[in-house]
Design brief:
It is a single chain. By secondary structure, the protein is of the alpha/beta class. The chain has two domains: 160 residues, Rossmann fold, CATH 3.40.50.300; 70 residues, Alpha-Beta Plaits (2-Layer Sandwich). 30% of the residues lie in helices and 28% in strands. A six-stranded mixed beta sheet has the order 6-7-8-3-9-10, sandwiched between helices. The longest helix has 16 residues. The chain is elongated. The two termini are 28 Å apart.
């Protein structure tokens, strides 16, 4: 592990025994490194292996084979020493029901040789006025902000956050994003898991797309999108008959078909948007097909996920035996 690397995972495998016999391979031989000071994200559906990988790095799971080193420490062999230097987000249900926020942070801080003042931590996330409240008295967004600030009570060097914004409304989600950016700005390394495309694209310096226990692509969000054969989409509606096959043959258009996010609309994956748009408008005029609500959109991580896995990522899908 070099000085620039905070986390290094090599050939990691994790199998779980299933009820009735047999094994489930949750993590299937993945390798990657996380640099100091970056926000590194795992993007994938529930059951893809994100949480299992995170728990191995945190020292909460023992790998079947392979290794995970955090801050130069093997997460299995040197788990106790490593845990003093990392922060792990807990879900709201893991906290004591009858302790106040300040008391919880005081208790957690007592487990470490070095800790941050509870009132300072609460002030950082806008919860100073809730110091005497119970966790159950907070809104969903406040609970998530508290769970993140509780993970940095020991002033860790690496912070692990698992689905930090699941179930939050857009405003609360962006508040959590700002908090995570603030943690990184203070010199920490942050590793997150998410199944929100926008979150990964907006928040992460680099993203590993994980599916069925394997990393299928790893790069910056911009690099992942640039690697697509078609880096733009043209979406339009029409009440007239549309020959999708004819559209597929137009210059600059890679694929054509029904739009995945607009009922009754059509979508073109395009390599050169200006050329494709000229060809589409020419085809519209020649064929007498009127186009409406036409938009030219840049490709996103969802397009990358579709391209690499052949299926859409749907947040909130049932667990597939990851734990």
């Amino acid at each position: 592990m070099t000085a620039a690397v905070a986390v290094e995972v090599a050939d990691l495998v994790k199998d779980f025994r299933q009820r009735g016999g047999g094994t489930l391979r949750a993590v299937d031989g993945i390798s990657f490194a996380v640099e100091h000071g970056e926000i590194f994200g795992f993007l994938g559906p529930n059951g893809a292996g994100k949480t299992t990988t995170l728990e191995i790095m945190e020292g909460l799971q023992i790998p079947t084979s392979g290794s995970a080193d955090v801050l130069g420490l093997d997460s299995t062999k040197h788990s106790s020493e490593m845990k003093r230097r990392i922060g792990i987000q807990l879900q709201a249900g893991a906290y004591f029901n009858y302790l106040t926020l300040r008391e919880i942070l005081d208790l957690f801080g007592s487990f470490y040789p070095h800790n941050l003042a509870p009132d300072d931590l609460l002030a950082r996330v806008g919860l100073a006025d809730k110091a005497g409240s119970l966790i159950k008295q907070l809104s969903g967004g406040q609970q998530q902000r508290f769970s993140i600030v509780a993970s940095i009570v020991n002033d860790p060097e690496v912070v692990f956050l698992d689905e930090a914004t699941t179930g939050l409304d857009p405003h609360a989600r962006r508040e959590v994003w700002d908090l995570i950016r603030g943690i990184r700005a203070s010199g920490k390394t942050v590793v997150i898991t998410t199944h929100y495309m926008e979150e990964a694209q907006t928040l992460c310096d680099r993203v590993a797309i994980i599916d069925y226990g394997r990393i299928v692509e790893l790069d910056t969000p911009e690099g992942l999108v640039r690697g697509l054969d078609a880096s733009y989409r043209i979406v339009f509606e029409s009440r007239d008959g549309v020959d999708v096959g004819a559209l597929s043959g137009l210059p600059g258009i890679v694929t054509a078909g029904p739009a995945r996010d607009r009922t009754g609309a059509f979508e073109l994956s395009v390599r050169r948007p200006a050329e494709a748009l000229r060809g589409l408008l020419r085809w519209s005029e020649d064929s007498g097909v009127e186009l409406g609500e036409l938009q030219v959109l840049p490709a996103t991580l969802e397009d990358v996920f579709l391209s690499r896995t052949g299926r859409a990522l749907r947040p909130g899908s049932p667990e597939e035996g990851e734990e």
